[in-house]
Design brief:
Length: 397
């Protein structure tokens, strides 16, 4: 089993994508074969894969930010996961294992630096020791613009519309992908919008469920003088009664050691700290019946996560279970990321991939990737193949 350390968000350009500001005035008159909404690692990898398969297709990525990979992609742990935690035979497990292989092949081909530091899974009691044997058994089973594509930044999609029928009433004109005072046209649409995936799906008539609930993961940094204590990834044995894995130790490519993350409910979909609050996001969460069920189900561990987020001395006690020598003075505040977690109306977290279309004729030409759970960064190239297979099947490419 091996793990690679790399900040995938900063290496998105190695997927063959060179970002440039494309004028939407020129895009107004163009009709594309496929618009990919969302410039994170899954959207970019899928667009690249489609051009690999269909080099004559006219494809554009539209991204609301002024850079690609601004949110989940550039705020992940940087670990290339081995897939040992996932159920053998599940899509999640298969894509993770294939994604690991494809990632390392790609890193080698394009001279992208990484470290194979391994992973140590620590059992803290006899019950966890039994579960670690189960994990072992699972482990046993288990260049876009250069290619002719285009990237348009600062393009926040506000809606989709189908043009009126042509005069002979026999064929429909392209789909309009709208942003504030701008519009581009395409035959087909793929959305990979992460934290906003449910909102885009609703635009084409999809159900509200599953909704995206933002969970912030906060990391701590290990003091320079204690880095010698951690030479490999150190992970806990997962607790099946909890939705998230728990704190772990992650050596980074630059020599830093990340500790965490925790998991706290964010007050904004792009809320990277307690002071980031978005009223619209909070209201939507308050209207979600499943959120109350989720909070009630995990009220005790949820409160513990909040307290440890505010008091590092308590977080240090958790870390001492793995490295007893650590103290409160050995850790300091680190970066944070927000996970787009899909949740159904019963308050259950969706743990696998979810695809949706919409209603009417426009729905038959739009594919929404509504949930791509962790480890989506590790699996991105395999996920891209999976999505492209679905696009080819659904849209008859």
């Amino acid at each position: 089993m091996s793990s690679g350390i790399i900040k995938l968000g900063r290496t998105i350009r190695h997927l063959g994508i060179t970002c440039r500001y494309a004028s939407t005035s020129s895009a107004d008159h163009d009709t594309y074969d496929l618009v990919v909404v969302g410039g994170g690692i899954v959207g970019c990898a899928t667009a690249r894969e489609m051009l690999e398969r269909h080099p004559n297709m006219k494809i554009v990525i539209v991204e609301k930010e002024n850079k690609l990979a601004m949110h989940q992609t550039s705020h992940n742990s940087g670990v290339i996961h081995a897939g040992i935690y996932y159920t053998p035979g599940s899509i999640k497990a298969k894509l993770c294992v294939e994604g690991l292989r494809l990632s390392y092949d790609y890193f080698g081909k394009h001279n992208i630096p990484y470290k194979k530091v391994g992973k140590l899974i620590v059992a803290q009691d006899q019950e966890q020791a039994k579960r670690i044997d189960d994990l072992y058994q699972r482990g046993l089973k288990n260049n876009f613009e250069k290619m002719g594509g285009k990237v348009i930044l600062n393009y926040e999609v506000t809606g989709f519309a189908e043009n009126a029928e042509s005069k002979d009433h026999k064929k429909l004109l392209p789909i309009c992908v709208m942003s504030k005072n701008k519009m581009i046209h395409t035959k087909y649409v793929l959305t990979c919008a992460g934290l906003h995936s449910d909102r885009l799906a609703v635009m084409t008539g999809c159900d509200l469920s599953p909704r995206i609930i933002p969970f912030r993961g906060e990391y701590l940094l290990l003091d320079e003088n204690k880095k010698h204590l951690c030479k490999t990834n150190i992970y806990p044995v997962p607790d099946p009664s909890l939705p998230f894995l728990g704190v772990h130790f992650t050596p980074r490519i630059n020599g830093d050691i990340w500790l965490g993350p925790n998991a706290v409910l964010a007050l904004a979909r792009e809320g990277y700290s307690w002071t980031d609050i978005n009223i619209r996001d909070c209201i939507e969460m308050a209207k979600s019946p499943g959120l109350y069920k989720l909070c009630f189900r995990y009220i005790i561990p949820g409160c513990k996560e909040i307290v440890k987020s505010l008091f590092y001395s308590l977080a240090a006690k958790d870390l001492q279970k793995f490295i007893p020598e650590l103290t409160r003075n050995d850790i300091k505040k680190g970066p944070a990321g927000v996970r787009a977690q899909a949740m159904d109306d019963d308050g259950k977290l969706v743990d696998d991939f979810v695809f949706d279309n919409g209603v009417g004729s426009i729905g038959s030409r739009v594919l929404h990737c509504r949930n791509a759970p962790s480890p989506a960064a590790t699996s991105s190239m395999a996920i891209a193949k999976h999505i492209c297979n679905k696009l080819e099947k659904d849209f008859k490419f």
